[in-house]
Amino acid sequence: MTPLPLLAYRLLTRALEPLAPRLLDARAHRGKEDPARVDERLGFTRAERPAGDLVWLHGVSVGETLSLLPLVERFVKTRPDLTVLVTSGTVTSARILAERLPKGVIHQYAPVDGPGVVARFLDHWRPSLAIFVESKLWPNMLLEAHRRGVELALVSARITEKTVEGWARFPASARALTGVFDLVLPQDQASGERLERLGARIDGLVNLKLAGDALPHDAAAFSRLSAAIGDRPVVVAASTHEGEEIAIVRALDKLADRACLILAPRHPERGPHIATALQREGVAFAMRSRGETIGRDTDVYLADTLNEMGLFLRLADVVVMGGSFAPALGLPAVGGHNPLEPARLARPTITGPDASNWATVTSALAQAGGLVLVQAPWDLPGAVEPLLADPAAAKAMGERARRAAAEAGGGLDRLWAFLSPLTPLTPKTATRTGSGR
Question: Could you give the CA distance from residue 199 to residue 210 in angstroms, rounded to a whole number?
Answer without folding.
Answer: 26
